[in-house]
């Protein structure tokens, strides 16, 4: 290895010295005496690797990987097969590459993907259907939909062959908009955006966005601007982050309204130097109808310049980024505030919990995204508490997982408050014998500490939402009845969480709103009624289905689904 090292720049040498001692880092992490929550393996094998996941309003989860991995470990139902002359792995394939997982019963059934959805994107429409965009090869411009069918459980993927995407969308990102349309941004060599569904002449076109080209690194394979981070802000404009830069974008006029400061540090933050990003909870409790909520973005993890090339060509795995950055984008003069995670992490997943905290899990301490491009899995999740004043107290290491979740893993919040975790396939095909990171077909659940039995007396249980068809109308008050054994004064909140489409460390459309509580009263010995006000506008909460949680003393109930419209 010495002849490979001597010509490296001094910056790489410094990082390489850090990386050569990653065994020490492993021993430190394994020696951490951390508590908080626990893990349960739900399924040893779901037949596919959970590269993409979307929770649906009927408490089922759509999971899929790609059609050109080769045969999966689950057959299509009724002895069906899929014939596709364009498929690069199997022209005739009798196995499934998507499943529908039932959260309530811990069961699954195969679904039929007809074109390749590898490294694609998606979002839920206002009526709760999954609109899924792009992929690879025959899926570059494909639009697919999946509509829940809770009554008969026979629904499957539909390909919208008469409504193709205008540009190739491989490694693109989606965000639902106030209008209910979905904006699709970027993709490999696609420096444009467009809108779906494609139901009018205006939405059949695409628009050039120079920011996407300016943020692409020129070195072969590096890019570092794929799967750009998108967040809809309360004023209706779009925050877009790629590589190290970010803009405030008016997609209705195709104008950049503002260039935000570059995030400090040398680390790159988008694929393949993959970090993760969330819009921190929007607090609607003290607005009095006179102003918009503050909006703050948080980005964690990533990799240093050149890390992908070193990993991809020499299998030298540089230490990943240890930093997170927070940017309050609604400030008149926004400034990044940087914080340090307990361990370095690339390819993390960041999931908003119902009580407003953030859990950071999955990923590796060295390398980047890509085929066999990372080492040293991070098994310990980290809890981040954004509301604590002392930033040194905000991070808390949690109980470790037993399964590495590397490239092509994912995580989503589910209505009972658990975090569903699956996937990990850092190989070009299914490889179940690879050492040390085989293709992973298992599905786990992380149970946060608030689900412990010691919090049973503080845990609310929702009885009913006093709203027609569980509809929360913009700006209107509605009541929720719940049971609670031990009530603590001032400790009740109501949160809405939008279910995300998660892939490649980015939970698209993830959103948490802390609603204004108008009043609370006791209606029975252990029965209570809380009156909350629905979000004030379409931009604050795009239309669609949300998980509604009652949070008491930091302990959330199981959610019920409400439709915001």
UniProtKB/TrEMBL annotation:
Q: Could you tell me which SUPFAM superfamilies the record lists for this protein? A: E set domains (SSF81296), Galactose oxidase, central domain (SSF50965)
How far does the signal peptide extend, from start to end residue?
1-27
Keyword presence, Endoplasmic reticulum: no
Q: Name one GO molecular function term.
A: transferase activity
Q: Name one Pfam family in it.
A: GO-like_E_set
Domain Glyoxal oxidase N-terminal: residue ranges? 51-450
- Alphabetically list the UniProt keywords: Signal, Transferase
**What InterPro entries does the record tag this protein with?**
Gal_Oxase/kelch_b-propeller, Gal_Oxidase_central_sf, Glyoxal_oxidase_N, GO-like_E_set, Ig-like_fold, Ig_E-set
- According to the entry, every stretch annotated as the Galactose oxidase-like Early set domain falls at 459-564
Question: What is the protein name for this chain?
Answer: Glutathione S-transferase
């Amino acid at each position: 290895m010495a002849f490979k090292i001597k010509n490296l720049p001094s910056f790489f040498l410094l990082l390489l010295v850090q990386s050569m001692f990653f065994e020490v880092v492993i021993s430190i992490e394994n020696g951490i005496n951390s508590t908080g929550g626990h893990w349960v393996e739900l399924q040893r094998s779901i037949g596919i690797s959970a590269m993409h996941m979307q929770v649906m309003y009927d408490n089922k989860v759509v999971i899929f990987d790609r059609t050109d991995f080769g045969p999966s470990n689950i057959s299509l139902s009724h002895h069906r097969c899929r014939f596709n002359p364009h498929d690069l792995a199997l022209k005739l394939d009798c196995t499934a590459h998507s499943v529908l997982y039932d959260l309530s019963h811990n069961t699954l059934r195969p679904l039929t993907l007809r074109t390749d959805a590898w490294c694609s994107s998606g979002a839920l429409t206002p009526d709760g259907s999954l609109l899924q965009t792009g992929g690879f090869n025959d899926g570059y411009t494909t639009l697919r939909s999946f509509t829940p069918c809770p009554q008969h459980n026979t629904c499957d993927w539909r390909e919208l062959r008469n409504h193709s995407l205008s540009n190739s969308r491989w490694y693109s990102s989606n965000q639902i908009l106030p209008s209910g349309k979905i904006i699709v941004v970027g993709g490999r060599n696609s420096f444009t955006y467009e809108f779906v569904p494609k139901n009018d002449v205006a939405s059949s076109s695409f628009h050039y966005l120079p920011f996407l080209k300016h943020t692409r690194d020129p070195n072969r394979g590096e890019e570092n601007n794929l799967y750009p981070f998108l967040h809809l802000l309360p004023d209706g404009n779009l925050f877009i982050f790629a590589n190290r830069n970010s803009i405030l974008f008016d997609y209705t006029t195709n104008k950049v309204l503002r260039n935000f400061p570059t995030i400090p540090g040398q680390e790159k933050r988008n694929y393949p130097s993959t970090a993760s990003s969330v819009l921190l909870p929007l607090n609607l409790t003290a607005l009095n109808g006179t102003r918009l909520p503050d909006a703050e973005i948080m980005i964690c993890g990533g990799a240093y310049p050149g890390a992908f090339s070193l990993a991809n060509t020499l299998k030298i795995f540089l230490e990943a980024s240890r930093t997170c950055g927070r940017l309050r984008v609604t400030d008149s003069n926004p400034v990044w505030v940087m914080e340090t995670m307990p361990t370095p992490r690339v390819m993390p997943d960041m999931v908003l919990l119902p009580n407003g905290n953030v859990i950071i899990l999955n990923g590796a301490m060295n390398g980047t995204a890509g085929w066999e491009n990372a080492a040293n899995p991070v098994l310990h999740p980290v809890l981040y508490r954004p509301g604590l004043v002392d930033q040194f107290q905000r991070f808390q290491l949690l109980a470790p997982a037993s399964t590495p979740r590397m490239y092509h893993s994912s995580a989503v919040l589910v209505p009972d408050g658990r975090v569903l975790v699956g996937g990990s396939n850092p190989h070009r095909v299914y490889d179940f014998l690879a050492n040390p990171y085989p293709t992973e077909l298992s599905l786990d659940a992380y149970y946060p500490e608030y689900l412990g039995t010691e919090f049973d007396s503080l845990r609310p249980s929702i009885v009913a939402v006093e709203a027609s068809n569980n509809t929360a109308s913009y700006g209107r008050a509605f009541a929720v009845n719940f049971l609670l054994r031990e009530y603590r004064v001032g400790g009740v909140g109501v949160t809405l969480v939008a279910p995300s489409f998660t892939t490649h460390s980015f939970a698209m459309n993830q959103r948490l709103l802390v609603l204004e509580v108008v009043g609370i009263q006791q209606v029975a010995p252990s029965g209570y009624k809380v009156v909350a006000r629905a979000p004030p506008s379409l931009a604050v909460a795009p239309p669609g289905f949300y998980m509604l949680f009652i949070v008491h003393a930091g302990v959330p109930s199981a959610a019920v689904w409400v439709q915001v419209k």
